């Protein structure tokens, strides 16, 4: 006969469970025993955590601007790399005597460091509403006390390393600005010296001296005109004096002036030059111009007359010098004064012309010097601006360094220090409890289902009617003998005792799950000792 499907009637299922109660209780009890064993023997991993607040600087940024600026996540990531470095983790392993159990004695230091680094985690959190940042530091290990100590030590390392890094960064920035400031100061001094040398080299051609040069040039030109006029007048007086001397010689005195025809020609040329100078300033009707023109015409006539005379009639220079000269003291004095004045005026004219040439060259070179000086001043101004900016930043950096050294800048502050964990985080006891209880019940239920599925007998009258399609007229109840009743009572008592034991195991397993191993064992010891 084919196997009968299991009816889904709740009453039937309850009766079936009661009937096969041992199949349910034994797997459940064994599962509880296994769960308790696993709860006690599985390696326990405890976790301790501390919360660290990133506290802003105490001095308002309007007064002191910090030079250590970075995103909190980036800064914490950098600090994590430094705190979790091999050297620091080796110190932690040595200080707290980690990995001293027999299972870890054969591990290399590199493996210990990597294992320790994997058990440390840093998580950054930000509260945008309050404008605060914080991060949590978590460490996992087998010993609750060691886990707490290591977590607090790591938090202290973070705080100390943050202070050290911030101070080092501030000092480094200050030193860099100081070096740049010294370099810029040296460049500024070089440009100042270059500007000074340039002004000294081209003194007189500088743009600010242009007006002075023009005024001096005007005065020199006026002075040149006056000197040339005075020189012309002196020459006229000399010629007049010579004519008077010649007239006196024709009447009664032989006078040898010692001037040859070449000297007279030079005098005429000088007088013509003087005439041109006078015409450049005065009109042709000016008395000096008229007088000079008359004198030039007179000397030209005299030169023509001398050229037309017989050669024998012209006395030679040597013969004239050999003739006795009779000059009056007054004439000699006037002649000496006039010639001396002419030499002085001629020297003054030449000197004035040289000065005019010098000042004209200065005026002509002034635009060129102005451009060159402008370029030097522009370089000087740029370097000066950079120097002032660096100086201001250097002062700000020094204030920031003092702020960091006095620990008035941004700091890490522990909000929640690590405490000794009371129960492990691994394995997850709640999940283990659910899995063990479910496994015990599932095993019992599965066995019952399998047995019922393999049993082909009829369990109820409905099964007969359904399978044979015949009505059941009556049912005969089970006849229980005295011996069977005794055995059944004993079986009920055993089942009750075993059920109570299963409940005790279940309660113990639940206590281990909720309280942990040590508190549960302590509770058991108290109950046993009364």
Automatic annotation (TrEMBL):
Q: What residues form the membrane-spanning segments?
A: 21-40, 432-451, 492-512
User: What's an example of a GO molecular-function annotation for this chain?
Assistant: protein tyrosine kinase activity
All copies of domain Tyrosine-protein kinase G-rich, residue ranges? 369-450
Q: Where is the Polysaccharide chain length determinant N-terminal domain?
A: 13-95
Q: Name one Pfam family in it.
A: Wzz
What the entry lists under InterPro entries is as follows: Bact_polysacc_biosynth/exp (IPR050445), GNVR (IPR032807), LPS_length_determ_N (IPR003856), XrtA_polysacc_chain (IPR014345)
Q: List every stretch annotated Disordered.
A: 301-327
Quote the cellular component terms of the Gene Ontology held in the record. Answer: plasma membrane
Localization (cell): Cell membrane
Tell whether tRNA-binding is among the UniProt keywords.
no
Q: What is this protein called?
A: Chain-length determining protein
Top-level taxon of the source organism: Bacteria
Ranges in coiled-coil conformation: 174-281, 335-362
Keywords (A to Z) from UniProt: Cell membrane, Coiled coil, Membrane, Transmembrane, Transmembrane helix
Q: How does it sit in the membrane?
A: Multi-pass membrane protein
* Organism from which the protein derives: Desulfosarcina alkanivorans
